[in-house]
Each structure stands twice: as structure tokens, then as C-alpha cells.
């Protein structure tokens, strides 16, 4: 930055005084859109009392309980649970504890109204009342939501922090570095995340003023990472959310790129040595750099050098001189290789970011928040809110443009009011935010809206509709910002940045004109957006603008669930089947409600819709659904599952939306496990060419998975005296000519085979034969050779447990449902075979450590009994075990192949998807309730309790 920002004299004033000096105009006139004059919004709703009891899915313990809470009858159980447990204030069980949604909404909305009146936002008290009623109506009807800190803090006795996104700064001095640790800790303690760029810190290849060699920014990352891991976030058990950025021309960039990939290698080595490297395990704390997302800030110069296979200079932090020249394509390859190995680093495209920067005279944008959607000045913050797009879709599948315009006006006004009374974790952040008033309006449920209107996510039509809505949202926001500038004044930093701000507004407007309409609906929305941009430009040239930034697309994890959204942020649907909690406890598998609406939009009759929905319920996908035309399959493509959206489909959607956002997009582009380093290079290169500001990828299964159980370490054996050389040789113990054996026929996803296992007379397996495929086929020959190799090794003393550890969870096709009641789903034939061998030949204690139990043992666990006490007679039928592991949905007798049903242990849509696909999904477990989380932008969110893995 060229200078310190935001030294306005009102930065330290009282909340009621902040912004009062800015009053210029008469105040806003607020129109009624959703409410009725003389009727309070609460009086139009049927309210009911509910009990909220939330348990840990794994052990059944109660995490949270509050009975008799009050909610509208149309709110889901899940939304009720999340809002009650996350946002109600006051100690549980005390008289001060909030018990009604009315209390929560009033606490927030009345605070906004009061601040708006005190700071001259409204023309009359009647306008203030309409503002309060309209905001209340939209919140209780789930049309939008503020970000989580608003619900946590506004209207309480605690600090009125309203922002979830922060950007810090650090300079090349020890005082600044230590202050960085302190400021980050304060932000983490408050439950938020922060990002910063370390590129001002001199490299390990440069000298200190004292004559020694600098340690470089990567070394200081270790201290910050340890601090984040200790403080966690908000005092909770999830990791703190942070972003660390380094410029591509920093001399230590290669070390930075490889930090997390090297740590992943360490995790694998320690796990194989028997250490507890599970997420949250006692030994995982020895792994460094795991509390941050890493991104390399690349320039156009570097990317052009990559394209041309040219050289690129790494520059001294103190003199700016080139101290090392490298081949750009080599470094780019190392970035892609590291991302292939561990999903980090992502890329931030520096020149694109700063070309859309409204405040370049104040300083460059050098960093972002943890999820990369907020990009602005150092030492700043952003207040977020998200619209629920599905609420604006009419019954005839047209988008309600007038209602959306008025709603965005209202929400954006409220967001700006919040800065008048907000508190901030540091004074520098407070000064910058009050001087530049960065806001981040966004939306959720885009994926659901596109499917409902029969638009494929990866299609020109889908991208056109999404771009039109995004352009309309940001155009209305900046138009309202210009109107606010005429009422309460432009932001403090506007005067010196007026030309640049206007230039960026014109770039947005021009981008709207360049969108090529595909259908009548997107053409209509684009026309409305164009009008908003032109109106905003005209008003802005007179008044200036109230806000340096207006929009971005956040993950909307917790608030998306609170609004009962099917999809988060910009994401497509996760899968076509989902997990729904029921009133009074329990849950069920349902097909997403967007699917029937989409089928009707495509012209299918009700009986066809019912048949297709039933097929999806049983199979989890639309392929070969009765009566569904293949050309319509793409409408139902999801992020995961049988028909998953291609990586470039995600990139192209981001590119369609980026020109209409002040900030960027929180989204991770998922690639299949089979993706190559070259594939990742291409995604990163195309992201630059398509004008993205930031891009992160995730290759399935690239990170170390969570083991079923940590293996207990064997006690160290006494070493032989060093004077002796003791050589041990294995001795083969052959099986007798006649030996007991067991043959098991099996089927994995329709692939049939036979497993024969022979044992020694004194017990212990010594031989395995596996038949799969037709006699004489290559596969049969390979399996025969594999069987001989395993058998010989067993006879030489290799423990069966070793093979089980190596082959269980191995993933390849065929994978899916089996006909074995003890092993309902297998990741591959190898996974099934060695699970079956473990069940047949390993004692309970060893199997328990590996997480391999019979159906009867699992049933005993569910009943709260000791599974070790269960004994199943080999030649009998274990009816209890079969019942416990049986499918929970009825199947038609005429179905030739039974469709997979969710297991009794499924606790979220992600786990349900695993059951349908027959393979594990890459997602962490929620620390609060134990269920598998689902992706939400660059983060993960728990459907059970609303916890997130990063941003709020």
C-alpha cells in the first residue's frame, strides 16, 4: 500500500455518532414489497413450538438441547436446529436464553433500524418502520440471511462485530511479524478468519541489516500455523480459517509451494508407522501448515512466460532487483504438482484482481480472506449477506425481477447501516472499513434455480441465466450505493479514487452488454441489469458511491442451511438424493425437491415424473431412468455421483459470473482421482485466460484419508548386541496335503467371483485362491498369480493383518453393493476379499482396531451392547444381524438388481451419497456431531449442526 488508509476523525467515535457528519440528503423513502400496511409480519405466520435435541451421530451423546422453541411452521427441522444452537444468545437453561425466532430477528433488525435512524438513512419514521417490517419479513421467510457474526453479536452486550472476512498485512520487521500473530489470534478467537500476503518479508536468500541471512516468510508461517492450531476458531474444536499468499516473484516461492505437499508425505509416513494421524488425532499436531489455505499470487508477466516457455525473474524484497532467473514453466509445473498431491496452493491472478480494483490510488490488493472471495485493501473487512435465489422463482419458472431488485436494495441498505455501529478486532481494520465501507452481497441456491428451470449447470443457457442474475444483483447494489452517497455521503476514500471507481463501474456495465443471451429469460434479466448499470453510472457521477465494493459469492455454509437452501453459493447440487431430518427425531432419504420441478419444466407428465423420481430414489442418478430422454440427463448433473460436472464446467461458470462481482467466488474445482498434473496445469491456465480472480482445485483422494482405526504401536523389541550380526531368514511352513478350507461366492456391483481360503490344522490361514472372470482370460490369469503370491507370503509368515491393512479401502471398479450381509458395500473386489478374510480368520480384537465387524456385532453396537460378546454360529443364520444391516427402503420384486439403499449409519447427504456410489467421499467429519460434512465453496459445512470447516 502506498499509504495508511482510513484516518477519518470519526473512526474512534461512538457508535451512534459514526457517520452522522456524512448526512447530506433528505433520507431514503422505503416502499412496501412483502408486507401489508397495518399488519406486523409475525401476525401473518403460523407459529409452533418445537424441541431441539441434537446428538452426536457416532456415539449418541447429546450435544445440544433446548425445548419449546418457537418457529414458523414452514421452517425445516434442520434449519430450526441450526439457528437455535448457533444463533440464540444466552446461557442454555437460563431465563435470559432466547427461545423464539422472533427474539433473534428483533434483536438484529431493531438494532439496524435504530442505527439507520440515528445516521439519517430514512426520510421519515414511517420509512424506518417499513424498513424494519420488510427486513423482518424477508428474514423469517428465509429470503436472505446476514452472515453469521451478525446473528452472533448484533444487539448483544458483546462487541458488535458484523464481518466474517478480514485481510491483514505484515511488513519486513520483527515487530510487524509478532503483531501479525497477535491480530490473527484475536480474529480466530472471535470465530472469524483472515488472510494476508507475506511477500514483503525478505527471502531466505537475502541478508539482514545485521549481516546475517534472513529466515524467510515460510519459517514465520510455522509460528503462525502453531498459533492458529492452538487458538482454533471461536474456542471451538474446528481449525482456524486463514489464507496465506505469496507473490510468484518472491525468491522463496518454490519452498512455499512445496510446504504442504511435504507435510502430506510426513503424514503418510507417520500413519504407516502406526501414529494417530486421523483428523483430530493426538499425533496430527506434529504436522505443520495445516491451518491455512495457501495461494500463489501470479502476474500476467509470469503466465505469459509460462505460455511462451520463457524465463522469469525472482526479485529481492529489499531492492527489487532480480536475484534469480528461473524457467517459468518449471515453477508452474511445481505448483500444479503440489496441488495434485495435496490441493494446495491455489492461484490468485494479480493483474486481473487489480484491473477491477476501485481504489488503486490508496493501495494495491495483495491478499484475500480464507476462501478467496473477499479481495480488497490490507487491514480491511467485509460484511456479507446472501439472497436465496429460489425464493424469487415464480410458479411459471420466471425470475421475479422487480421483487429481486427491491429486495437487493433493502438488504444492501441494511448492510451499509451495519458499518455505522460495527466494532472491529483491530483499530486499523476499523479505520479502513469505515473509510471504504466494503460490502459483499451474494446469493445461494443458484444450482437449484438452474435445475428447476431445466438449465444444465454446464451449458451456455445455464451460464447466461447465472450471469444475468449476478449482473442484476451487483448493478442494483451499486445503484443503491450511489443513492446512499447522495443521502449520507460517499465513502471517505472515494475522492482520490473517483476516476478509477468510475472506470470499474463502466467495465461492469460493458461486460453486461457483452453477454450473449441464449433464451428469453436471460435476455429479459440482462436488459433489466443493463438499465440498473446505466442508472447507477448516472447517479454515481453526481453523488459518487457509498461503498468501494458491493458483491462477491461466499460459501453460504451455515446460513444456506438456515435458509433451507438445496445448494450453497455458486455450487451445483451435491447429489440428487439428500438426507432429511424428521420432526420428533429420525431421518429419511428423499429426492431433492428441485428434481420434480425440473421434470415438469421439461414437459414430463405427472406419472412420468413419479416414475423417474422413484428411479432416482433407488439408484441415486438419472441414467436409464424410465421415460427420461438422454438429452435431458445434463440438467440433473451434480457435483458428485454417476454424472458429475466436468472440471471445466465449474471453471466456465465462474468465468461467466466474475465480471459482475466486486470480489471473487468461493469455489473449489473438483477433479477426479485420475486427473494428471497436466490437467491441473490446464485448469489453472484456463482460469487465467478466462479472467478469474482466484482459483483452487481439489483432486479426489489426494489428501491422506481418515483411517478406520489407529493401529496400536508394538512395543520396541530389544536390539541385538552391536558386536553380533544376527541374520533372520523366514522359513516357509507348507500346508499339509489335506487341509480345511472355506469357499465363499460373492458379488460386488454385479461382478461375481469365488474366494477359497485354506488354513492349517492348528488354525491360521495359509492359502488363498480367487476366481474372477472367465477361464483363460487375462484377468483370470492375473488373479491366479496374485493368489499364489499371497499364499506363498502367508506360508512364509506374513501376517494376514498386514494384507488387510494394505488392501482394505483400495478403490477401483467394480465397486458398490455386495450380496454379503456382513459387508454391504465394497470399494473394490480387493476391498471385499480382504474384509471377508479378516472376518473369517482374524480375532475380534484385531478386527475391531481395523473397524471390520460382522453385521451382528454392528447391531450389538447400535443396541449399546458389547460387540465382543456376540458369537455367530458358522452354519446358522444370524437373523438379528441380517435385520440390522438390511435395507431401510422397500424394493420391488420385479427389479432384476436390487438398488443400493442408505445404510442405517448414514448421517448426512454426503454419507448417503457414499452409500449410493459405493465409495468414500473426500470430506472431513464434523467435530461437533460426527457426521460427514459437505462441500460449501472452498469450505465444508455440516448439515447436522451447521458447523463449518472455515468461513462462517
TrEMBL record:
InterPro entries named in the record: RdRp_reductase_class-2 (IPR050862), RNR_2_N (IPR013678), RNR_lg_C (IPR000788), RNR_NrdJ/NrdZ (IPR013344), TSCPD_dom (IPR024434)
Gene Ontology terms for molecular function: cobalamin binding; cobalt ion binding; nucleotide binding; ribonucleoside-diphosphate reductase activity, thioredoxin disulfide as acceptor
Domain Ribonucleotide reductase large subunit C-terminal: 163-698
Keyword set, alphabetical order: Cobalamin, Cobalt, Disulfide bond, DNA synthesis, Nucleotide-binding, Oxidoreductase
Pfam families per record: Ribonuc_red_2_N, Ribonuc_red_lgC, TSCPD
Enzyme Commission code(s) on record: 1.17.4.1
Coiled-coil region list: none
GO biological process entries: DNA biosynthetic process
Named cofactor requirement(s): adenosylcob(III)alamin
Region (Disordered): 1-27, 890-910
Keyword check for Nucleotide-binding: yes
All residue ranges annotated as the TSCPD domain in the record: 736-839
Reactions listed under catalytic activity: a 2'-deoxyribonucleoside 5'-diphosphate + [thioredoxin]-disulfide + H2O = a ribonucleoside 5'-diphosphate + [thioredoxin]-dithiol
Entry-linked NCBIfam families: NrdJ_Z, PRK06556.1
Protein's job: Catalyzes the reduction of ribonucleotides to deoxyribonucleotides. May function to provide a pool of deoxyribonucleotide precursors for DNA repair during oxygen limitation and/or for immediate growth after restoration of oxygen.
Membership in a protein family: Belongs to the ribonucleoside diphosphate reductase class-2 family.
Protein name: Vitamin B12-dependent ribonucleotide reductase
Organism, scientific name: Actinocatenispora rupis
The encoding gene: nrdA
Amino acid at each position: 500500500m502506498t499509504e495508511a488508509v482510513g484516518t477519518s476523525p470519526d473512526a474512534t467515535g461512538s457508535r451512534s455518532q459514526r457517520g452522522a457528519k456524512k448526512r447530506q440528503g433528505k433520507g431514503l423513502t422505503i416502499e412496501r414489497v412483502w408486507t401489508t400496511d397495518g399488519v406486523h409480519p409475525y401476525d401473518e405466520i403460523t407459529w409452533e413450538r418445537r424441541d431441539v435435541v441434537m446428538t452426536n451421530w457416532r456415539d449418541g451423546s447429546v450435544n445440544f438441547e433446548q425445548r419449546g422453541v418457537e418457529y414458523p411452521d414452514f421452517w425445516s427441522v434442520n434449519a430450526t436446529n441450526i439457528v437455535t444452537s448457533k444463533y440464540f444468545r444466552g446461557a442454555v437453561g437460563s431465563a435470559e436464553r432466547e427461545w423464539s425466532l422472533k427474539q433473534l430477528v428483533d434483536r438484529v433488525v431493531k438494532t439496524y433500524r435504530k442505527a439507520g435512524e440515528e445516521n439519517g438513512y430514512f426520510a421519515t419514521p414511517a420509512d424506518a418502520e417499513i424498513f424494519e417490517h420488510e427486513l423482518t419479513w424477508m428474514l423469517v421467510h428465509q429470503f436472505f440471511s446476514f452472515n453469521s457474526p451478525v446473528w452472533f453479536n448484533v444487539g448483544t452486550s458483546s462487541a458488535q462485530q458484523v464481518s466474517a472476512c478480514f485481510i491483514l498485512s505484515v511488513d519486513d520487521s520483527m515487530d510487524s511479524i509478532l503483531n501479525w500473530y497477535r491480530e490473527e489470534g484475536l480474529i480466530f478467537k472471535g470465530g472469524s478468519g483472515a488472510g494476508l500476503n507475506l511477500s514483503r518479508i525478505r527471502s531466505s536468500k537475502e541478508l539482514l541489516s545485521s549481516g546475517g541471512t534472513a529466515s524467510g516468510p515460510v519459517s514465520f508461517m510455522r509460528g503462525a500455523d502453531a498459533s492458529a492450531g492452538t487458538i482454533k476458531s471461536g474456542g471451538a474444536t474446528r481449525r482456524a480459517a486463514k489464507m496465506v499468499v505469496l507473490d510468484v516473484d518472491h525468491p522463496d516461492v518454490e519452498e512455499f509451494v512445496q510446504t504442504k505437499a511435504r507435510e502430506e508425505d510426513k503424514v503418510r509416513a507417520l500413519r504407516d508407522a502406526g501414529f494417530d494421524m486421523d483428523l483430530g488425532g493426538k499425533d496430527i499436531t506434529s504436522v505443520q501448515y495445516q491451518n491455512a489455505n495457501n495461494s500463489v499470487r501470479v502476474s500476467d508477466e509470469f503466465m505469459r512466460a509460462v505460455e511462451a516457455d520463457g524465463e522469469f525473474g525472482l526479485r529481492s524484497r529489499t531492492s527489487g532487483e532480480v536475484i534469480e532467473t528461473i524457467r517459468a514453466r518449471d515453477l508452474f509445473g511445481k505448483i500444479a504438482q503440489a496441488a495434485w498431491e495435496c490441493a494446495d496452493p491455489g492461484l490468485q491472478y494479480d493483474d486481473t484482481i487489480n484491473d477491477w480494483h476501485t481504489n488503486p490510488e490508496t493501495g494495491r490488493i495483495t491478499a484475500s480472506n480464507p476462501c478467496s472471495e473477499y479481495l480488497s485493501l490490507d487491514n480491511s473487512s467485509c460484511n456479507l449477506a446472501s439472497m436465496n435465489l429460489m425464493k424469487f422463482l415464480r410458479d411459471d419458472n420466471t425470475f421475479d425481477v422487480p421483487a429481486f431488485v427491491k429486495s437487493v436494495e433493502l438488504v444492501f441498505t441494511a448492510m451499509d447501516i451495519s458499518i455505522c455501529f460495527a466494532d472491529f478486532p483491530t483499530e486499523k481494520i476499523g479505520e479502513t472499513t469505515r473509510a471504504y465501507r466494503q460490502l459483499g452481497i451474494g446469493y445461494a441456491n443458484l444450482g437449484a434455480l438452474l435445475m428447476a428451470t431445466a438449465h444444465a449447470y454446464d451449458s451456455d443457457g445455464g451460464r447466461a441465466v447465472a450471469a444475468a442474475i449476478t449482473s442484476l444483483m451487483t448493478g442494483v447494489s451499486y445503484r443503491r450505493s450511489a443513492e446512499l452517497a447522495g443521502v449520507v455521503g460517499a465513502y471517505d476514500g472515494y475522492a482520490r479514487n473517483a476516476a478509477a471507481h468510475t472506470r470499474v463501474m463502466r467495465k461492469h456495465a460493458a461486460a453486461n452488454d457483452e453477454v450473449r443471451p441464449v433464451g428469453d429469460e436471460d435476455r429479459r434479466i440482462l436488459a433489466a441489469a443493463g438499465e440498473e448499470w446505466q442508472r447507477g453510472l448516472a447517479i454515481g457521477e453526481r453523488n459518487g458511491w457509498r461503498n468501494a465494493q458491493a458483491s462477491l459469492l461466499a460459501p453460504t455454509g451455515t446460513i444456506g442451511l438456515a435458509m433451507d437452501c438445496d445448494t450453497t453459493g455458486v455450487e451445483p447440487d451435491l447429489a440428487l438424493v439428500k438426507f432429511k431430518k424428521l420432526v420428533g427425531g429420525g431421518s429419511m432419504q428423499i429426492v431433492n425437491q428441485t428434481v420434480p420441478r425440473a421434470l415438469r419444466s421439461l414437459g414430463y407428465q405427472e406419472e412420468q415424473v413419479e416414475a423417474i423420481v422413484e428411479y432416482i430414489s433407488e439408484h441415486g442418478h438419472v441414467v436409464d431412468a424410465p421415460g427420461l430422454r438422454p438429452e435431458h440427463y445434463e440438467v440433473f448433473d451434480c457435483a458428485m455421483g454417476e454424472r458429475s460436472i466436468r472440471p471445466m464446467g465449474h471453471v466456465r461458470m465462474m468465468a461467466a459470473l466474475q465480471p459482475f462481482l466486486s470480489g471473487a467466488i468461493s469455489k473449489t474445482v473438483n477433479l477426479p482421482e485420475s486427473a494428471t498434473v497436466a490437467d491441473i496445469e490446464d485448469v489453472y491456465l484456463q482460469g487465467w485466460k478466462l479472467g478469474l480472480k482466484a482459483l483452487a482445485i481439489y483432486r479426489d483422494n489426494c489428501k491422506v484419508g481418515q483411517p478406520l482405526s489407529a493401529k496400536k504401536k508394538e512395543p520396541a523389541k530389544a536390539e541385538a548386541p552391536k558386536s553380533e550380526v544376527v541374520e533372520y531368514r523366514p522359513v516357509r511352513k507348507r500346508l499339509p496335503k489335506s487341509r480345511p478350507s472355506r469357499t465363499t461366492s460373492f458379488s460386488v456391483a454385479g461382478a461375481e467371483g469365488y474366494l477359497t481360503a485354506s488354513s492349517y490344522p492348528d488354525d491360521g490361514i495359509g492359502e488363498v485362491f480367487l476366481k474372477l472372470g472367465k477361464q483363460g482370460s487375462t484377468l483370470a490369469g492375473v488373479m491366479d498369480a496374485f493368489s499364489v503370491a499371497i499364499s506363498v507370503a502367508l506360508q512364509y509368515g506374513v501376517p494376514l493383518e498386514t494384507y488387510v491393512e494394505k488392501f482394505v479401502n483400495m478403490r477401483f471398479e467394480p465397486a458398490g453393493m455386495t450380496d454379503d450381509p456382513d459387508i454391504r458395500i465394497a470399494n473394490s473386489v480387493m476391498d471385499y476379499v480382504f474384509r471377508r478374510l479378516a472376518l473369517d480368520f482374524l480375532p475380534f480384537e484385531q478386527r475391531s482396531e481395523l473397524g471390520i465387524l460382522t453385521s451382528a456385532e454392528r447391531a450389538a453396537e447400535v443396541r449399546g451392547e458389547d460387540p465382543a460378546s456376540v458369537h455367530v454360529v458358522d452354519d446358522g443364520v444370524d437373523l438379528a444381524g441380517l435385520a440390522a444391516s438390511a435395507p431401510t427402503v422397500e424394493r420391488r420384486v420385479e427389479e432384476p438388481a436390487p438398488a443400493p439403499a442408505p445404510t442405517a449409519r448414514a448421517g448426512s447427504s454426503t454419507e448417503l451419497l457414499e452409500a449410493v456410489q459405493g465409495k468414500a467421499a473426500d470430506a472431513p467429519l464434523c467435530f461437533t456431531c460426527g457426521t460427514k460434512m459437505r462441500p460449501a465453496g472452498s469450505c465444508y459445512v455440516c448439515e447436522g449442526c451447521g458447523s463449518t470447516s472455515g468461513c462462517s
